[in-house]
């Protein structure tokens, strides 16, 4: 049966993104909202909207039973989970399957396998997908982890198999740090998802984070939709993404793409997902995980492929076969995405929340901005700091980069601190222009220090400009005064 009404189990810009495609396809949409989001745009733009609880996610967007009640009472025949919240919760996917609601994503069993990093790694090894050297299974305790670390050599990463978004990961360089970090990773994982299981992996220095969009229908047809370079990060969370990657040529793209298709088949994945890799400095690629959902950075892949990924998700969920083969797909141009976060860069990226009295959204040819912002909205302390995704496309990388710089300069958000100044500094560095990227880019190239200097120079330029303007202003009015005196004299003379 074709999907007719989709409940979006999410909020913010991703809810608006799904609504946009559904509207175009004539599919009704159902929004859910917390106390905090009563005035949000996704509530106003959906066909229907239902209140589901208090601001805290546990009382609203993570409340599976409440969301199920709305799905059933609203007559929704499908649910789109977006990203975050319940998007990779196999219990929620199974709850939908049990109630015959079409979950727009992989099956619950496949999601469960992808979410267990150790089981997923085992499946990849069987499918001859290269993985990062590390423990053959879960480590029992810190002492067991220490033994593995000494076998493969420091530095290593302690990773919770239930982690995500950069959480539940610690890089350690010696036994002492490992013993301390083990407890920290365990605590973070329990706080995030209520359980913990730890693996140890070799930490590869100066790596690039490169992911591949994968797509597989319910008939077993699978393709990849090219790579995204996601190496500009802070605390293992992505900041700037671009496609294509400056270090992936056509031969490597095809080689890793074939591996990605094997990975999708290895876990019986359906719908859209992402296979993530670390690329070592020697050029080797190592699989790290599958994100079983639509990625935050999907717009750049849409820009270079010409595809609507949400429509593709809906078509696959409807049981339709892929309308193309791998050979039909071509990359066109270059795209960059900057995640506009409400954060104070100089306070260790601390969240910045509160009212946004005014906002100006960039626009223009080949500029796209997915955002929930509007004048008078509020950035909530209860949810993720992501306010907008600014995307630019160009026929060349340089065209895309300069277009992004212009768009960043046009983006005005009043009331909260943002990551915009940081991105302007990054995009102007020679290292970024030359494609010399790594997951430790900010630290390796002292980007925060550069940002500080850039802002200082900007302030000095503004002061100089203000002084020059004041002098011109003073001379202008001095001239006006002199002319006025002369004119007044002539006028009085004439009157006489």
Major sheet attributes:
8 strands, antiparallel
Which CATH-level-2 architecture of the largest domain?
Answer: 2-Layer Sandwich
Distance between the termini: 96 Å
* CATH topology (level 3) name of the largest domain: D-amino Acid Aminotransferase, Chain A, domain 1
Helix content: 40-55%
Any low-confidence stretches, pLDDT <50, length ≥5? 485-496
Radius of gyration: 26 Å
The overall pLDDT, averaged over residues, is 92
Question: Can you summarize this structure?
Answer:
With 496 residues, the protein is an alpha+beta fold. 41% of the residues lie in helices and 25% in strands.
Describe this structure as you would to a colleague:
The protein has helices at residues 12-25, 41-45, 64-74, 90-98, 108-115, 117-126, 142-152, 175-193, 250-266, 298-305, 309-317, 397-410, 420-428, 430-433, 441-444, 447-495; strands at residues 5-8, 28-34, 48-53, 78-80, 102-103, 156-164, 167-172, 198-202, 208-216, 222-234, 237-243, 271-279, 285-291, 334-341, 343-344, 350-351, 354-356, 359-360, 367-371, 377-379, 386-394, 412-413. It is α+β, with helices and mostly antiparallel strands. The protein folds into three domains: 5-104, Rossmann fold (3-Layer(aba) Sandwich); 133-202, Dna Ligase, domain 1 (2-Layer Sandwich), CATH 3.30.1490.20; 208-451, ATP-grasp fold, B domain (D-amino Acid Aminotransferase, Chain A, domain 1, 2-Layer Sandwich), CATH 3.30.470.20. An eight-stranded antiparallel sheet has the order 13-12-9-10-11-14-21-19, with helices on both faces. Helix 7 (142-152) packs across helix 8 (175-193) and helix 12 packs antiparallel against helix 13 (420-428). Mean pLDDT is 92; it is low at 485-496.
